[in-house]
Specification:
heterodimer, A: mainly alpha, B: Rossmann fold, 9 helices, 37% helix, globular
Chain lengths: 323, 247
Amino acid sequence: MRTIYLKELADHFSSLRFLLMASLVFMASVVGVYLAGQGVRELLSRGAGPYLEGRAFLMLFTAPGAMLSLASLFALAGPLAPLVLGFDSVSRERSQGTLSKILSQPVYRDEVLLGKFLAGLAAMAVLLAALLLILSGLAMLGLGLVPSAGEAARLACWYLLSLLYLGLWLGLAILLSVACRSAPASAMACAALWVAAGFFVPALGQTVAGATVVVADPSAPTREERAAYDRVSRAVTMASPPAVFGEASRILLDPSHRGSRQDLSIASMSRLDRFLVSQFQGGVGLGQSLILLLPHLAVLAAAALVSFFLSFLVFARQEVRSA
Amino acid sequence: MTFVVETFGLTKFYGREKAVDGLDLKIGEGEIFGLLGPNGAGKTTTLLMLLGLSEPARGRSLVLGLDPLKEPVKVKSRVGYLAENMGVHQELTGRQTLEFLAGLNKIKNPGGEIDDCLRTVGLASVADKPAGTYSRGMRQRLGLAEVLVKKPGLAFLDEPTLGLDPEGIAQMMGLIAALPKERGVTVVLSSHLLHLVERVATRVGVMGRGRLLAEGSIPELAAGAGLPADLEAVYRHYLRPGAGEDS
């Protein structure tokens, strides 16, 4: 497995595709941080400094810039990196005729998949770490914002959470590259999956909620009706990994995250929960955030494991030569 | 004679079609065994089953005394396989390819062995160029080096001369002919080039529709059918329409 891991890692780092992807990611995030930074600077110049104590730096990731906050952008566009790295990991070996070469060596098939998976994950871990460090450096230079210890800890946790999220998508990409006979087919399948998870499922949530929740007076929905709408829409939307990850990022990166109107998690809480959450007016500690995060972590990890297990199952039963 | 390959009633279906049908094959140590037959006769499927890459529906086999179903990894570490239409990892050089293969076989310090294999197949001068730039003949010879680098006791070569020019074919056959004596490798060679097989093979097996129609040395088979000692005549005789269908 070590041999496969090292070869794949070397392939990633020397490939044009990785270079292109890395530069694209860097450009997008520098622009995002710049836009968010302008917003933060404006808040600071209006004298909001004391209120932002201990979260100004993280706002770079959560403040909506021109369109999306960096964290939401990452939830949506981040999966493209593992999909691009993984979509042809097995199907290319098959089409260039090297799969039978590898499988006729004394290795188990799960070692092949695991080596490819770990190499992709390591490549993305390096890329993401470099990205976070560079963005932090830019923010320190440009805005004079220095992360507090708490902010740094939250950012580190978010890094690990992101790796889990990217790992889930890499697992899905490998699954599709095993299941599809050709690389173009698995590319199409990956694109379809991404569109479905990123755009279709959230829209479906709104649609289902709109169709099932009865609102007596559409011009003035009651509090209960609005809560019911949010509950249904959230239940459907949470079937998509970007939604789960997006909510988890907000919990982790925004210490004051305890529910606003667009926050779906609070609307569905009981009155007691809402009371408890409102106790943390000045923001919850990292420990509390992590506890709030447990369900999200469990879901993402389970999905990653299932996708990897499925790809092994399909791969193990595949004939080397098709009939 | 000790046998390095023995199969007992090996059978394999693709869908409802019988790809290999009750195959009983014995191949002795140090042989160059020519596995012959038209396309779709079940030669490649047989080789895949012997490597443990494909599961037989019925029957069993022993390869170097091991059951490929139960110990596929052990079998694969001692058997080299040059697949039909084998590809190369475009971005790796010839030397890196062999290093990768040596790593997969957990060979420690393969440097000397790799140099030796590259010299043997005549790729030493281009060893540090990407394999994607190699010609078809060079790729096939690299494939043979990949087989040799793991020091196998047995090599399955599936159509190693497919698509090569006459000079490439001659080079490849020369390398194959030397394997048993110089490296102690038993060779199972599948090919359609009968006149070349005739020159190097100690024995041949003729397969048709998944069954072994004849097995033996060329003079034996020819004498049995009352033919001149010519492989092409033997091949045509055993694969003539209707042959073997009564049994």
